Amino acid sequence: MAAQLPAQAGALPDFVLRQFDPASGDPDHRQLYRILQSGIRTAVLPAGLKLPPSRAMAQALGIARNTVVHVYEQLALEGYVQAGVGRGTFVAAVGPRLAGFAGLAAQPLQPARRAALSSRGSQLVEQAGAAPLQWGAFAPGVPEVRMFPSQVWNRLQAQVWRAATPQQMSYATGHGDAGLREAIATYLQGTRGVVCTPEQVVVTSGTQQSLQLVAQLLADPGDTVWLEDPGYWGARSVFRALGLKLEPVAVDAEGLAPSAAQLRAPPRAMFVSPSHQYPTGALMSHGRRRQLLEYAAAQGAWVVEDDYDSEFRYGARPLPALQGLDDKGRVIYLGTFSKTLFPALRLAYLVLPPELVDSFARALNELFREGQTLQQAVLARFLAEGHYATHIRRMRAVYGARHDALIAAIAQQFGSQLPVIGGDAGLHLVLGLPQALDDRAVVQKVLRAGVATRPLSMYYMRSPAPAKGLLLGYGAVREEEIAGYFALLARAVQGFL
């Protein structure tokens, strides 16, 4: 039981003595601080009240004087008390300081009823497409990270760290690591037919960041952007969040297929995946590519080319990039290492027309205060020494075998009952379903069976969705496990057929 404070110690309500319990197990300083802070904030200890001297408080509570001194100093630092040599310690006024606030505080006001999220924030969350499960059978768009050459990477990383400079350990500046930009340009020229110099490459922290830069620098709120429909939900989310008007454009066997009415109302930008349309796998024909580039040049529109996994084609060489055909400087090329190496690396890049490069680099540094410079240097060595090309060749064979195993499993379970769409490239295919089925309900039932997939309908902006199906990613499931996992999925699907 705490002792009574001496009369000359200064008034202090009994609640402090009643609440302080030396046997509670809570440290003395924390307990005393919490009691005094609460009393001041609730005005039980009113402004101007003189607190007992530290010695008297310590004696009354049976604690060390230094503990009380520490608590008083902390309260003074946070503005709860005011102390002066020879004057003592007084409770400070912690209410509103500004006259306007004080006036409002004196008025009886009804609590404002406002939504926690902004309208665009609510829309973003309600229409989000990111899946909670990003690994396993048959999560779409996920590579086989277990076969990444981590020993090689660790060796290169050790080399980079041994020679790390203060600049590499600070905020990034400019367009990204010079060695990485040179390695990317060399790789793209040799394998993707991209026409560029290292100076046109800007390194980013993923495709989503690249898209945000494109939207903020090349379009204003209210400007129209064409999106493939069905198409990549991530681009949809970024553009919508930045206030752009989204125009869904149908995709046919030759790629983006705008209607005559849409062609009469040119957009500010067009987002396309011509080498492997996401998610249908359609390839944009050479004729359609030429038409698209001519239209963009004539209308002053930008073409944003997402070349996300074109390295993986089975039975044919990868198609060259659309950017290589562009002689008017209208294409912005997006690439990423998430599908070819591992998603957590968070490194991607833009290849820009020369007149845009400096603006994009400056905006990147201004908005995002980039880093990852040491990782960029490691990746530069990984590419320059040929490890990247070796890994791509190896994984192309692995994914090709998994692709074939999944096609065989589909045939075994369904024969020709359900169509396979876009199954000759990338890390996923689409299993078509009858239009009358609710593919979202199918996905939920399949998930309960222990298998991840995604409904084709969620990739459409048009409603009702013109097609139904399941996206099946085979990148992250071993070849020998595919038949078993697909059998689980097939049993769940059969209940809807």
Automatic annotation (TrEMBL):
Record key words, sorted: DNA-binding, Pyridoxal phosphate, Transcription, Transcription regulation
PROSITE patterns assigned to the protein according to its UniProt record, in alphabetical order: HTH_GNTR
Residues annotated as domain HTH gntR-type: 26-94
Domain of life: Bacteria
One Pfam family here: Aminotran_1_2
GO molecular-function terms, A-Z: DNA binding; DNA-binding transcription factor activity; pyridoxal phosphate binding
InterPro entries registered for this protein in UniProt: Aminotransferase_I/II_large (IPR004839), HTH_trans_reg/aminotransferase (IPR051446), PyrdxlP-dep_Trfase (IPR015424), PyrdxlP-dep_Trfase_major (IPR015421), Tscrpt_reg_HTH_GntR (IPR000524), WH-like_DNA-bd_sf (IPR036388), WH_DNA-bd_sf (IPR036390)
Entry similarity comment: In the C-terminal section; belongs to the class-I pyridoxal-phosphate-dependent aminotransferase family.
Protein name listed in UniProt: GntR family transcriptional regulator
